[in-house]
Specification:
Layout (H helix, E strand, L loop, with lengths): L18 E10 L12 H18 L7 E5 L5 E5 L2 H9 L3 E11 L11 E2 L86 H6 L2 E2 L4 E6 L10 E2 L5 E2 L13 H10 L11 E2 L2 E6 L6 E3 H14 L5 E4 L7 H11 L4 E5 L20 E7 L17 E4 L3 E4 L5 E5 L2 H15 L3 E5 L10 E4 L2
Parallel strand pairs: 6-10, 7-11, 7-13, 8-11, 9-11, 13-14, 14-15, 15-16
Antiparallel strand pairs: 1-3, 1-4, 2-3, 4-12, 5-18, 17-18, 19-20
Helix pairs in contact: 4-7, 5-6
């Protein structure tokens, strides 16, 4: 118990959440009410195209300058715009609103150092540091995106040019060792398929803490840095996976973060490596971060739109990411959840109330925001908090899959906590709890997520 409160701090990317100068997300008004009931999907798309062409013409914006096109629940586009173009678009009767795009950047430290990897796969080891869902290894600097300006309007926004980083050092609050509160008993949940780990499987403490079962036939959509498609512990649906990075259609995880998230949710019960919460589930990789861990809100919106158009009710989406407030991203998540698609969202790693973070601040049925705790049930020092948090899950010193085909311990952050709940949602469609965290920073301790 000596190290109960000796928790790692997230080395947060100071660029995360900052506005991207001159880059905007333009959202059209909902055209559904303007179309007759007899119009089919093809006709509605033709109508939307005409509206987009008219909006672009009035703003003197070429189609080749559009960085992303949104079709579906969110209709509109993302582009570099001048002040005059922004003003013209805001006056256009077909435009609901215009908001500035923001950086989503993973931090350079999300593992503890010196943790040897284990398991099958490609045989290499990974001893860099992870946690908080934010990084690409110890001692690295914040990623500076260098992608060329896109010309394919059906792909995604280019990675932004970072403003000068602000000082966002996170301080470790004085922990309070409060007595754990027993939760109010809940009604029995629907049954799930139990599973017996095969000989040779690693059942990490973090998986044991929340519980596990057989997720065969179920689908989780991982909006992240891609996934190692050759990982022996993952079932990856390559056909439905997609990269939203301009000039790089590969869904391969060059950063490592998405692979770790995927394994916590769905690592296979195959006699090697580790077992995930919803073992054997199918993983669909939606890549929004490049090899440096850089992305944008506009890409995340495209990924959620893709989910709305391709996922089904009962599927689960894991979003171990977050940025400043984005009305468009929040609305996209709510629109998807309204179709019965479930979401597990990272609360964030800035030691602040998550009410200022999208999509963590979304409060809607089927949407769960997750804080991080350690093995002693204490809230992680850098975890965001607040009324928007629904559950806490293991996020300090956890074991997960790595992009080299192996597994590793020592990972931490709310983005490592989030996939535990995604796995529970795959198996049950809801989340139960066993106990509450200690040391919460708001007035209500977070219930600890559990399968049973």
């Amino acid at each position: 118990m000596d190290n109960q409160f000796n928790q790692p701090l997230a080395s947060l990317s100071p660029s995360n959440g900052q506005a991207i100068e001159g880059q905007y997300i333009v959202v059209f008004k909902n055209q559904a009410s303007q179309m007759s009931a007899s119009q089919d999907l093809k006709a509605s798309k033709v109508s939307a195209l005409r509206i987009r062409e008219d909006v672009l013409a009035k703003a003197k914006l070429k189609a080749s300058e559009v960085q992303q096109v949104y079709e579906g629940a969110v209709s509109g586009f993302a582009a570099k715009l001048s002040a005059e173009q922004v003003n013209e678009l805001r006056r256009n009767p077909n435009v609901a609103y215009v908001e500035q795009d923001r950086i989503i950047a993973l931090s350079p430290s999300w593992k503890d150092t010196g943790i040897a990897t284990k398991g099958g796969g490609k045989g290499s080891t990974d001893t860099t540091t992870k946690g908080g869902g934010k990084g690409n290894g110890k001692g690295q600097t914040d990623p500076t995106p260098t992608e060329p300006a896109p010309t394919d309007s059906t792909t995604t926004a280019p990675a932004p040019t970072e403003p000068a980083p602000a000082d966002s050092t996170v301080t470790d609050p004085t922990p309070t060792d409060s007595t754990s509160i027993e939760p109010t008993p809940t009604e029995p949940a629907a049954a799930y398929a139990a599973i017996t780990p095969l000989e040779g499987e690693t059942v990490a403490w973090n998986i044991e803490r929340v519980g596990y079962g057989d997720g065969t036939g179920k689908t989780v959509w991982i909006i992240d840095s891609g996934v190692d498609t050759d990982h022996p512990d993952l079932n990856v649906d390559v056909a439905r996976s997609y990269s939203f990075i301009y000039g790089n259609p590969s869904i391969e995880d060059g950063y490592g973060h998405g692979t770790s998230v995927a394994g916590i949710v769905a690592a296979k019960n195959n006699g090697s490596g580790m077992i995930g919460v919803a073992a054997n589930a199918t993983v669909v990789a939606l890549r929004v971060f490049d090899d440096a861990g850089a992305g944008s809100v506009s890409r995340a919106i495209s990924a959620v739109n893709y989910v709305i158009n391709n996922a089904k009710a009962g599927d689960v989406v894991n979003m171990s990411l977050g940025s400043g407030i984005s009305t468009t991203l929040d609305q996209a998540v709510q629109d998807a959840a309204a179709k019965g698609i479930l979401f597990s969202l990272a609360a964030g790693n800035s030691n602040v109330d998550c009410s200022g973070t999208s999509p963590a601040r979304v409060n809607a049925p089927g949407v769960y925001t997750i804080s991080a705790m350690d093995s002693y049930n204490a809230l992680w020092a850098s975890s965001n908090f607040g009324a928007g948090v629904d559950f806490a899950a293991p996020g300090v010193g956890v074991t997960a899959t790595t992009k080299n085909g192996s597994i590793a311990g020592g990972m931490y952050g709310t983005s490592m906590a989030t996939p535990h709940v995604a796995g529970i949602l795959l198996l049950r469609g809801e989340v139960l709890s066993q106990g509450y965290v200690t040391g919460d920073k708001d007035t209500t301790p977070d219930p600890i997520a559990s399968l049973d």
